[in-house]
Specification:
The structure holds two protein chains of two kinds. Helix content of chain A is about 75%, strand content about 5%. The N and C termini of chain A lie far apart (about 55 Å). Chain A has helices spanning about 1-30, 40-55, 60-85, 90-115, 140-160, 160-170, 175-180, 185-210, 220-230, 235-255, 260-265, 270-280, and strands at about 130, 135. In chain A, helix 2 packs parallel to helix 4 (about 90-115) and helix 6 (about 160-170) crosses helix 8 (about 185-210). Chain A has one domain: ABC transporter involved in vitamin B12 uptake, BtuC. Helix content of chain B is about 40%, strand content about 30%. In chain B, the strands form two sheets. Chain B has a six-stranded mixed β-sheet, with helices on both faces. A four-stranded antiparallel β-sheet of chain B has the order 2-1-4-5, covered by helices on one side. The chains are: A mainly alpha, B alpha/beta. The interface between A and B is medium-sized, with 18 and 24 residues. Chain A: Its main location: membrane.
Chain lengths: ~290, ~240
């Protein structure tokens, strides 16, 4: 039983990392209707900034804060300069542009830092706690708490502030929002900046485990996309719950189903995802799109 | 005092020119109508004022040349556009739609007073205040769209086809509220309307558009006295 609980908590921690990136994907999708693959590249480059600052002697908290500021600016600038011209056009074109950006940003990171994996310390230290026989690392608990905090903060932003109201309005109907005087282009930039910050949070959380390298978030991005889609693409809560679900399933299947083991466990969430999407095409929490004729 | 003036305004979507030189004026506290058949350019005229289409000629508002201004800048100057198709924010509650309408305002007391005014004009919205706009009936959505414009405390409202798709009795109620808004608040208006009887119940002068050009203009009574207007728009 203790082992089971341990596996679940570790699964939730891994899921929280997918969840942070999934939230970023959902945020941009709600605002612009795009699936932004570049999210992974933005997060990697920003995580390298955290690494570089820390490597240069900055305290860890300051390095992370610096990376967050960088990530916000990077997201806002990319939206404004590269993605803006494609936003109103064919969505397929725009998605291909974001995939190109993903590759490009990974390349930029490799150009400056090379492919050699770099160590990055955990914000939460290395201790393991023994809670009634269940061993959990402080890092796992910290990761889950960070994501929970992010969810609460986003909720406060979107439900409790004027900026959040404006961002919801722009996501709903940009033309109509502009007629009420909302500065739509600014709000889209802020939305991308915010999504990019969520990405670097995922990057910094996962870096101590995976090391910092240009490809560090490749598979995290795939899981995050799976979580976003499983959650319904327009539901932040859905994305987080789906991400947790994926993390836990992956961990449990790897431990308990012999033929799955460590190599195949990465496939398990996708099998589950495909089955769920066959039954519920709109995802777990997505709204069915009703087409009125 | 002229509040809004269009001089020889043109507009096009891509290469398709839709307006070929429209001119008219709206005085402070006045209401002008734009009549015309489908495709004559009525909606495009409003869009030109709001900066939603590529526009030529000259549009002056409150003494300032606003030709080519972005929609949010036009809104910030006190022009509220109730667009064709209502443009309510479906996933937002009625209350949030109204808060979005008041987005640019800083006077909390004034906003609260205008919220009361809206709910007084449209009692239906009071009952639906927590519902998502997408759950409202067509008539209620139209009321919400107008209320959202009121929340901006505009000096000029551009009203596009407010009766479209509504049952006649609902359309009457919507226009009753619009008339009250005119008489009690003195808001200037440009009213685009298929139903000329409804338009004439609000406006004091109007233009008639034909394929992107002004074909007639005059006071309400002049136009209502013309045979061609009566035949084409007033059913006899």
């Amino acid at each position: 039983m203790e082992y089971f609980i341990q596996l679940v908590i570790e699964g939730l921690a891994t899921g929280s990392i997918y969840g942070a990136l999934a939230l970023a994907i959902v945020l941009v999708n709600r605002a612009t209707g795009l699936i932004n693959f570049a999210q992974g590249g933005m997060a990697v480059l920003s995580t390298f900034v955290a690494y570089a600052l820390f490597d240069a002697g900055a305290p860890l908290a300051l390095a992370i804060l610096g990376a967050i500021v960088f990530a916000f600016a990077l997201g806002a600038v990319l939206e404004r300069v590269i993605v803006r011209p494609f936003e109103r056009g064919d969505p397929d074109t725009a998605v291909v542009v974001t995939i190109g950006l993903f590759v490009l940003l990974g390349g930029v990171a490799a150009f400056f830092f090379g492919y050699e994996p770099r160590q990055f310390p955990s914000f939460f230290g290395l201790e393991t706690l023994n809670i009634a026989g269940v061993f959990v690392s402080l890092r796992s608990i910290g990761t889950i708490v960070v994501l929970a905090l992010v969810v609460v903060l986003l909720q406060v932003l979107f439900r409790g502030t004027k900026l959040g109201l404006a961002m919801r309005a722009v996501a709903d109907n940009p033309v109509s929002a502009s007629l009420s005087g909302l500065p739509v282009s600014w709000l889209l930039m802020i939305g991308w900046g915010l999504a990019s910050v969520l990405g670097v949070i995922a990057g910094v959380l996962v870096a101590p485990q995976l090391f910092v390298s240009p490809g560090m978030l490749d598979f995290v991005l795939v899981y995050a996309l799976a979580a976003a889609i499983l959650g319904g693409l327009d539901s932040p809560q859905g994305a987080v719950i789906a991400a947790w679900f994926i993390g836990v399933i992956e961990n449990l299947a790897g431990a308990y189903i012999d033929i799955v083991g460590n190599d195949l466990k990465i496939a398990v969430p996708f099998v589950v995802m495909i089955i769920i999407l066959i039954v519920r095409p709109q995802g777990l929490f997505g709204r069915k799109v009703v087409v009125r004729v | 005092m002229t509040l809004l003036e269009l001089e020889d305004v043109t507009a096009s979507y891509g290469h398709a020119q839709v307006l070929h030189g429209i001119s008219f004026r709206v005085g402070e506290n006045a209401a002008a109508g734009i009549l015309g058949a489908n495709g004559a350019g009525k909606t495009t005229t409003l869009r030109a004022i709001s900066g939603m289409v590529a526009t030529g000629g000259k549009i002056t508002y409150d003494g300032r040349d606003i030709t080519g201004y972005r929609p949010d800048k036009v809104a910030a100057l006190g022009i509220a556009h109730v667009p064709e198709g209502r443009g309510t924010l479906g996933d937002l509650s009625v209350r949030d739609n109204l808060r979005v309408g008041a987005y640019l305002r800083k006077d909390r007391k004034g906003v609260a007073a205008d919220l009361d005014l809206c709910l007084d004009l449209f009692p239906n919205l009071r009952e639906r205040i927590g519902s998502n706009a997408s759950a409202l009936s067509g008539g209620e959505q139209q009321m919400l769209a107008i209320a959202r414009a009121i929340m901006a405390k505009p000096r000029l409202i551009l009203l596009d086809e407010a009766s479209l798709g509504l049952a006649p009795s609902t359309a009457q109620r919507v226009y009753q509220a619009i008339r009250r808004l005119r008489s009690e608040q003195g808001v200037a208006m440009v009213v685009v309307e298929q139903n000329a009887m409804l338009a004439f119940s609000v406006v004091d002068h109007a233009i008639v558009l034909e394929t992107g050009k002004t074909s007639l203009s005059g006071s309400r009574d002049e136009l209502m006295g013309l045979d061609e207007v009566r035949r084409a728009y007033l059913g006899g």
